[in-house]
Amino acid sequence: MILNILLSAFFGGTDSFTIVTSLLYMVGLWKMFEKSGVRGWWAFVPGAREYQLSRCAGRESEGRGWSITAVAMTVSAVVSQIVVPTSNSEYVSATDIVMMTVDLALAVTQLVFAIRVYSGLIEVYGVRRRWMWLWVLPTSCIVACVWGFSKKFQPAWKVEDIRAEMARLASHGSATVMDEGLTVNLEERSATEFFQKKVLLRDIHMAIPQGHMVLLLGGSGAGKTTYLNAINGYEKAKAEVMLNGNNMYTQYRKMQYEVGFVPQTEMMRGKDTVLNTLLDAAKLRLPKEVTPAQRRDRVNEVMEIFGLLPVQNNLVEKLSGGQKKRLSISMEFISNPSLFILDEPDSGLDGVMARELFEQLRKIADTGKIVIVITHTPDRVIDLFDDVIVLAKDSARTGRLAFYGSIEDARKFFGRDRMEEIVKAVNRREEGGDGLADEFVMKYAEVQHV
C-alpha cells in the first residue's frame, strides 16, 4: 500500500508503462531545463516541473495554473490508492462518482494549460506546429528526450539570460528630484511567488510637473495598479518617491493627506445622503485639528466643484451613474490633495458623461494638481491629457517603463496615432497584441541613455 502511494505521488500511476514513460519524460525535461538555464533537478519535482517548463516556454502565468492542477492530480492519485474500492464491481458509490468527476475536471484543465505551455515551447524552439500532437499524446516522453538530448533542438533564449539582458538594457539611471511635482525613482517592486522571487516592476524613473494630467497605459498584468500603490505609499517598493520635496515613504503620515486615490469600485453606503457621505469622508480625510465648521465649508466647496449641491440631500442609491462617480471622486478630493490618482473613473459611463468627468479632472489639474488616470477608453478624451505613461510586460514578465512623455511624442515613438493601438503594440500576442514590449522597452531605455 505504501509503495503504491509513493509511486502514484511521484509517477502518477503504479503500472510499469506509466512509470517508464514518466521517468523518460522527467529525464528529457532535465536536459531541456539545462538548455534553458534552469536547474535540471526540478524535472523530478511534481508540480514544480510544470512551472519551470512554463518559464522555459515564456508562459509563466499559464504555468502557475498548470502547476496547481498537477499537484491536485497527484493528490487525487494518492487518495485513490487510500480509498478502499467497493467489493461489488457492479456498484458505483457516490465517492467513486465524485472522484471520477474531479479527475475529469482536473485532466481537462491541465490539458488546457499544457497546450498553452507547449505552444510557447514550439515558438521558443522554432519548430513546426505539428509537434503539438506529439506533446499532448502519450508520446510526450519521446519528444522531451529528443528535444533534451539532441543538439539540433536549441531554445532561442535562456530564462536567466533574457532577465539579465532586459535588466541591463532597461536601466536608465534616475530622474532628478524636483522641488515641485512628483519624482519617482523605482528600482524594484517584488514579491514571492511559487517559492521564488518575482519582480513585478523594475527601473521606472520619471518626473511629473505640477499641473499635469497624465494617462497611465498598459495591458493586463503590466503593473499599473502595482505602480500606483507604490507611488502613493500603500505598497512600498525599493524606491524613492518625492512629492513637492517630501518623501512619500519616510514622511507617510504627513503625506497621506496629500494623495487622493479613487479606486474603480465605489465604496459608499446607499442609504446615506450625499451630504452625510462627504461629511464622513471629511472626518477621515482631513487632519484632526480641522473644526466641524471648517469641515462643512470644505464639503460645500467640493460639492460646488463637482455639481453635487442640487442633490446633497438625495440618497446615494438614488443617484445616477455619473453622479455616483462624481461623489466617489469628491470623497477623495475633500483633503485637497496635491496628487490625485483615479482608476477607471469613467467605467460604466457613456461618452458624454465620461467627457464631462474628464473635463472636471482637467480643471483640477489646471489648479496645479497632478492627476494620474487609468482608463480603457483613452482616445475619446486624449486631448485633455498632457502626458502618457506606458507600462509593458517584458519577456521576463516584469513590468517596465516603455515610455513617458507628451501625447504627441508617444505617437511618434510608437508610430501609432491612437492610444489603444499603443497598448495593442506592447501586449503579448496570446492576449491579442503585437508582442513588441521588449522592443519598445529597450528603445526607450536607449533614448534615455543618449
What does this structure look like?
The chain has 17 helices and ten strands. The termini are far apart. The chain has two domains: 2-156, no CATH class; 164-449, 3-Layer(aba) Sandwich (Rossmann fold). The protein has helices spanning 2-11, 16-35, 48-57, 60-82, 94-125, 131-136, 140-149, 159-170, 224-231, 252-255, 274-285, 292-305, 321-333, 351-366, 407-414, 419-426, 437-449; strands spanning 182-193, 196-208, 213-218, 238-243, 246-247, 259-262, 339-343, 370-374, 387-393, 399-406. Helix 2 (16-35) packs parallel to helix 7 (140-149). With 450 residues, the protein is of the alpha/beta class. Residues 3-11 have low confidence and may be disordered. The protein has a six-stranded mixed beta sheet with strand order 6-7-8-3-9-10, sandwiched between helices. The protein has a four-stranded antiparallel beta sheet with strand order 2-1-4-5, with helices on one face. A hairpin with a 2-residue loop joins strand 1 (182-193) and strand 2 (196-208).
